Known about the structure:
The chain has a nine-stranded mixed beta sheet, with helices on both faces. A six-stranded mixed beta sheet has the order 15-16-20-17-18-19, with helices on both faces. It has a five-stranded parallel beta sheet with strand order 3-2-1-4-5. It has helices at residues 25-34, 48-60, 90-98, 105-112, 132-145, 160-165, 179-183, 203-206, 209-217, 234-242, 298-313, 318-327, 355-362, 382-388, 402-412, 428-439, 461-479; strands spanning 15-19, 38-43, 63-66, 78-81, 102-104, 123-127, 152-154, 173-176, 192-195, 226-230, 250-254, 263-267, 270-273, 285-289, 336-341, 344-348, 368-372, 392-397, 418-420, 445-448. By secondary structure, the protein is an alpha/beta fold.
Amino acid sequence: MGGREVTSPEFQGKRVTVAGLGVSGIPAARVLHGLGAVVTVVNDGDDERSRAQAGELQALGVTVRLGDGDTLPEGTELIVTAPGWKPDKPLFAAAAEAGVPVWGDVELAWRLRELDGRKAAPWLAVTGTNGKTTTVQMLASILKAAGLRTAAVGNIGVSLLDAVLGEETYDVLAVELSSYQLHWAPSPRAHSAVVLNLAPDHLDWHGSMEAYAADKGRVYEGNRVACVYNAADKATEDLVREADVEEGCRAVGFTLGTPGPSQLGVVDGILVDRAFVENRQKNAQELAEVSDVHPSAPHNIANALAAAALARAFGVPAGAVRDGLRAFTPDAHRIAHVADVDGVAYVDDSKATNTHAAEASLAAYESIVWIAGGLAKGATFDELVAKSAQRLRGVVLIGADRALIREALTRHAPEVPVVDLARTDTGAMLAAVQEAARLAGPGDTVLLAPACASMDMFANYNKRGDAFAEAVRELGTASA
Length: 480
């Protein structure tokens, strides 16, 4: 990390255990060591990559213990954990018994943000089951269009510690927070925050939907200006009602319909604000056109409204909302148009790794040949299939848990033709695209929205999307 020289009496000589190497653990270990803490890193894995990472830290004087992430090192006074480590690990049970606090890297970043008297940049925080990364990137684009020094950080893959302690100073940070990160971060207090949506996900980690929702709801605690919620998802509004916020903090909704007072919404193809205007009972401020949002699928319009609400809460003018949305380019594999072949559109939404994301993706098109399947992570598919049945022209199933989707299709869309591909070799995606092309006709969309994780067949959702795009290109070449 190319950061400043910082000091902290609080950490000088403190015995801190960092749980987990990786994106958050390595920066945490470096920072804590630099602050004078006596750092021990514990890690479950003992593979070649872990040993290389351990070597770099050991060269600094950090102790690293590989292959045993469950035993609490003797004398530990604080644990800083990687967000993915489950709360039921024996390490944390031992910490609780010994009275040792457990923080995540987000908690650590929050506590260090004013180190050496630096003026801390306020946080605009984004969480939710789906759409977090897109929304936080849209938000950063809008803030930059307003001339503000900002960065998209957190669960997006950019260390909050680097942002807080780096050489660069910011006016405001656009912070993506996962439910894992929020679980281990009791202290952060955002300027304003949003929970985009709530649907069952990561329940094996949290233990229940109630625990998952409670961790998401932490993002609203102590908000100063606005708690932004999804008017179409009552659970998000309920979390606002339950939050302990600063006096004067407002609840602000976003909707794909006509907004009421204290809401942002859509009127005749225009994104409008009835929350951050004078006399919001009667007035509305035009922010942007639906066509300024790319892609302009309904769930992406919702993301844009949420980003706009947080930016407006921070005082950003309407023109910057429009300019920022126009300048924004979404990451790959998020409802990305790959090509048109013989009058059929091919769309890659490999990032739709759960049923909630796939439902939003399917809702964006009228006539679909759906490529779906992978690792279900305990999900069920009846509700998804029932809601989408009228849009399905055909379905091609791939992956380990494809039978679960096939059974839901039998129950709720028995007339839809289904191709069940058992193969898992490198040519499986090409076969899936070829079968989808056979089922599709002009005007249809072949949509990769798997509703499942990818690791049964691919290294990650990016590789799955890349394989789809390559198969579409091969299809296009063959038909040329």
